[in-house]
Amino acid sequence: MADIGTSMISRLRPNPAKLDLNMVHARFSHGLCSLNMLKVRNDLMILPVAIEWKSDLSIGQEVKSLEIPWEYLGQEIKDRGSYLLVLTLEREKFIEIGRLGKLMFQKGYYIYVGSAMSNLRARIKRHRQKRKKQHWHIDYLTHVADGFFSIPIRSSQRQECEISQSLSSIIKSGPSGFGSSDCSCLTHLFYSEKNPLQIEAFHDVLQRFRMRHPF
Ligand SMILES: [Zn+2]
Questions:
Q1: How do the domains of the chain map onto residue ranges?
Q2: What are phi and psi of 36, to 5 degrees?
Q3: How many A from CA of 53 to the centre of ligand 1?
Q4: Radius of gyration of the chain, Cα coordinates, nearest whole angstrom
Q5: pTM above 0.85, yes or no
Q6: pLDDT tens digits for 70-96?
């Protein structure tokens, strides 16, 4: 069980892109390291630079110094935003999902999209707990899942429906109405036979939403 931060996501990218200024800014603005940087900004001199990372993983000659938009960061990296939960089932099973009834889930990876516009970390922590009062559809799935990890997408904007729509174009949709009782989305649950972290289009969606509101 772990949160997957932006730096880890970028390391997992099959073909890391050349770092540009926006990408570096986005990384500063979304990781937990950004919170720590804000805390120590008056005690440390922080000099961010962008380097070129070539496709053969060697480092190029070009180095650019970057500015850190402190004011923007202070506003944007509060503990709020959207999150993805990636749950695994090691074998297919029928699961009772509240009012949706008993549904068959194939073995594989399930990606749930939610948001918490305050206390995002506490919300994710709650999802991790297997024993809890089952309130949302996802609670029935986390209760029986064999594996779990979370991917926070911090933002001042509620993006869960747009993220869901983007995921629906790259991976299979899960049961209709799952987690989408209060919106017009078909579902907020998606399915993949393979680990979505091994799907480049999945990383592209994550990066797009993580970089959308910064700058
Ligand atoms: Zn929605």
A1: 6-76, 81-212
A2: -65, -40
A3: 37
A4: 18
A5: no
A6: 887 777 778 899 999 999 999 999 999
